[in-house]
Amino acid sequence: xxxxxxxxxxxxxxxxxxxxxxxxxxxxxxxxxxxxxxxxxxxxxxxxxxxxxxxxxxxxxxxxxxxxxxxxxxxxxxxxxxxxxxxxxxxxxxxxxxxxxxxxxxxxxxxxxxxxxxxxxxxxxxxxxxxxxxxxxxxxxxxxxxxxxxxxxxxxxxxxxxxxxxxxxxxxxxxxxxxxxxxxxxxxxxxxxxxxxxxxxxxxxxxxxxxxxxxxxxxxxxxxxxxxxxxxxxxxxxxxxxxxxxxxxxxxxxxxxxxxxxxxxxxxxxxxxxxxxxxxx
Length: 281
Fold this sequence. Notes:
By secondary structure, the chain is an alpha/beta fold. It has one domain (2-278): Rossmann fold (3-Layer(aba) Sandwich). 42% of the residues lie in helices and 16% in strands. The chain is built from eleven helices and eight strands. The chain has helices at residues 37-42, 70-83, 96-107, 124-135, 140-152, 155-171, 179-189, 192-197, 237-246, 262-265, 267-278; strands spanning 2-5, 8-15, 20-25, 48-53, 90-94, 114-118, 225-230, 250-255. α1 (37-42) links the parallel β3 (20-25) and β4 (48-53). α2 (70-83) packs across α3 (96-107) and α5 (140-152) packs antiparallel against α6. The model has no long low-confidence stretch (mean pLDDT 94).
């Protein structure tokens, strides 16, 4: 299915027929909503109507080039909510999607019924710090391969090093990687949006996202929030607790043994965390 926003055309997905609407914002940068297909499957269709969409710039969509500000992505979400005629939905933002969601809550504070910040961060500098701290946990062989790849400007070798060491520990601990994630990684590697916001090397974030910061705005979030993370996510337990404490009406879900794609590592506990939060309303 397609959404038309002016000259832009975005693919979107809708499942379920329940009375509770929830929109999923995929991560990236450059991934698509296919990476969150599992959440469509986890939420009971008789209770929920679940939407997700390909954000502008993902999958190198020529019909919707990427925006150069997080605010523009928040505005895009607002337009989609209006076009789909959804009244005060819940929104789950995963990783980069959580960044968009935080920005949305700043500019549209009363538009949602509740928010789920899954495996995300409140500033670019924090994210870079998280990534660098986690990289220190990897063996010397990874660092040697990464440095050699960067010195040669060899993006394929850098991807291979990340795939061998970083992905299985901090991205998703399911072996082999779920097909939904694998299919998205190809377009992401050559994604203009990823290069613009992140830079050439994920672990040395130096793109436009570095200067984005909504940490001070967390205390102003007015809607109920569920913050989700886990033992092998980018941030530590201390980082998770800091975000949870900063948001006035927040609950937390923190799980041992799960990484950045927690919904694949332990789908049943992830599902329970979401349902326990959503069914309070």
